[in-house]
Specification:
The protein has 16 helices and 2 strands. It is an all-alpha fold. The chain has a single domain, classed as Ammonium transporter AmtB like domains (Ammonium transporter fold), CATH 1.10.3430.
C-alpha cells in the first residue's frame, strides 16, 4: 500500500462527505423559509441512514462477487464482517486499504438519494421519505452501481465508462427525481389544493395554470455557500476517483474546475438573455450543472474538452429548466432533473465523444472510436428508464402504506413546524 495514495483518498473521502451537508444548504436556500430546516435535515439524515445501509448490505451487493453481471454478493462483505484495515482489493483499489475504498464509495451512495429530495421539497412526509430512500438505494442505486463500477458488471463489460458517477449518481438521481415530482404532485398554493400522492388531477385543480407557480428562494447566500462547498467537495468526488495521488487525479481536478466555471458563465449569460438580468442563484446552479456534466468525463477528457462540456451543459440545462417552469405542469421544485438528469445525460454522452486515450486510456467518437460512443448511449438508454420506472413504482408502493404527502394544513404551516416542531429563524 502507498502512504501517499492513502493520504489523498482519506482527504478526498472527507471532501465528498462535506458535499451532503453542502447540498442541504444549497437546497435549503432555494426553498421557502418555512421549509428550510426540513430540507437541510433531510440531507443530514439520509447521509446517516444510507451509511448504515451501505455497511450492512450495500457494499457487498455492489462490489461483491458478481452474479451474471447484474448484482454482487459476498458474505464476508455483509456488515463489513470480513473487511479489516489490512485488507486490499487488488481489482478495485490495490494501493489503499479496502476499508478506505469502502468509506470513499459510501459517500457516493449517501449523497445520491439526497439529490432526489429537491424534486419533492416542501411537501413530502419525513417518515415516507426515509422508507423510500432505503428502498431506492437498495433497488435502484445498488444494481446500477454494480452494472457500471463492478469490474464484472454487465454495462462495464459492454464498454460503458463513468469516471465518478455521471451515470451511477446523476442520471439515476435525476430521472428518479422526475418520477418523484410526478407521483408526489405539485406544491399547494392558496386557494388551489393539490391531492396528495396523485399528479393526475392537475387538470381539475390547477386548470387555470399553465405551469407550476414560481416560489422565490428564501436565502440566496445559503445557495451560494452550498454551491461553493459543493464545488470544493467535488474535487474529492472527481479527482479522488483516480484512487491514487497521481497525474490522473491532477487532470481530473483541473477539468472539474473548468467545466464548473464554464457552466456557471454560460448559465449566467443564458439568464441574462432570457430574463434580462444575471441571477446569483442561477450562477450557483450553473456551476453545479457543470460539475455534474464533467463527473463521468473528468478522468477521460482533455482540459479544452472539459470547457466545452461545461459551457454547453449550462445552456442545455438552463433551457430545460426554463421550459419546465414555463410550459410544463411538472413541479420539480428545485429542477433536479434539469440539473442532474440532463447534466448527467449530456456528460455521459459527451464522454463518449471527447474521451481521449492520452488522458484516460480510452478514445471517444472524436478520435474515431464509435464503439465507445455507442456504449455510452446504451448505458444512458438502460439506466434512465430503469431508474425512472423503478422509482415510480417504489413511490406508489410506499404511498400505499405510508402516505408520501403531508396534509394541506401541514403544508401550509411548513414542514419545519409540522414535521420537526422547529423553525429556522426565531424572531422574538
Amino acid at each position: 500500500m502507498a502512504s501517499g495514495d492513502i493520504a489523498w483518498i482519506i482527504t478526498a473521502t472527507a471532501l465528498v462527505m462535506l458535499m451532503t451537508p453542502a447540498l442541504g444548504f444549497f437546497y435549503g436556500g432555494l426553498v421557502r423559509k418555512k421549509n428550510l430546516v426540513s430540507t437541510i435535515v433531510q440531507c443530514f439524515v439520509i447521509f446517516a441512514v444510507i451509511s448504515l445501509v451501505w455497511a450492512l448490505w450495500g457494499y457487498s451487493l455492489v462490489f461483491g462477487t458478481s452474479i451474471n453481471g447484474f448484482i454482487g454478493f459476498s458474505p464476508d462483505l455483509l456488515a463489513m464482517a470480513g473487511v479489516t484495515i489490512s485488507n486490499v482489493n487488488a481489482q478495485l483499489a490495490p494501493e489503499i486499504p479496502e476499508l478506505l475504498f469502502f468509506a470513499f464509495q459510501l459517500k457516493f451512495a449517501a449523497i445520491t438519494p439526497a439529490l432526489i429530495i429537491g424534486a419533492c421539497a416542501e411537501r413530502i412526509r419525513f417518515k415516507s421519505l426515509l422508507i423510500f430512500m432505503v428502498l431506492w438505494s437498495t433497488v435502484i442505486y445498488i444494481p446500477i452501481a454494480h452494472w457500471v463500477w463492478n469490474p464484472e458488471g454487465w454495462l462495464k463489460g459492454l464498454g460503458a465508462i463513468d469516471f465518478a458517477g455521471g451515470i451511477v449518481v446523476h442520471i439515476a438521481a435525476g430521472v428518479s427525481a422526475l418520477a418523484a415530482a410526478l407521483v408526489v404532485g405539485r406544491r399547494k398554493t392558496d386557494g388551489c389544493p393539490v391531492p396528495a400522492g396523485d399528479s393526475i388531477p392537475w387538470k381539475n385543480h390547477m386548470a387555470k395554470l399553465d405551469a407550476p407557480p414560481v416560489f422565490k428562494p428564501t436565502n440566496i447566500p445559503y445557495v451560494l455557500l452550498g454551491a461553493a462547498l459543493l464545488w470544493f467537495g467535488w474535487f474529492g468526488f472527481n479527482a479522488g476517483s483516480s484512487l491514487a495521488a497521481n497525474d490522473l487525479a491532477a487532470s481530473a481536478l483541473v477539468t472539474t474546475n473548468l467545466a464548473a466555471a464554464g457552466a456557471a458563465v454560460s448559465w449566467m449569460l443564458a439568464d441574462w438573455v432570457i430574463k434580462g438580468k444575471p441571477s446569483a442563484a442561477g450562477i450557483a446552479i450553473g456551476a453545479v450543472v457543470g460539475l455534474v456534466a464533467i463527473t463521468p468525463a473528468a478522468g477521460f477528457v482533455s482540459v479544452p474538452a472539459a470547457m466545452i462540456i461545461g459551457l454547453s451543459a449550462g445552456v442545455i440545462s438552463n433551457l430545460v429548466a426554463n421550459w419546465r417552469a414555463g410550459r410544463s405542469r411538472i413541479d420539480d421544485s428545485l429542477d433536479v432533473f434539469a440539473c442532474h438528469g440532463v447534466g448527467g445525460i449530456w456528460g455521459s454522452i459527451a464522454t463518449g465523444i471527447f474521451a481521449s486515450a492520452a488522458v484516460g486510456g480510452v478514445n471517444g467518437l472524436l478520435f474515431g472510436n464509435i464503439e465507445q460512443f455507442i456504449a455510452q448511449l446504451l448505458a444512458v438508454a438502460v439506466v434512465a428508464p430503469f431508474a425512472f420506472f423503478g422509482s415510480y413504482i417504489l413511490l406508489k408502493v410506499v404511498n400505499l402504506f405510508s402516505p408520501l404527502r403531508v396534509s394541506e394544513k401541514e403544508e401550509d404551516a411548513g414542514l419545519d413546524l409540522s414535521e420537526h416542531g422547529e423553525e429556522a429563524y426565531q424572531l422574538d
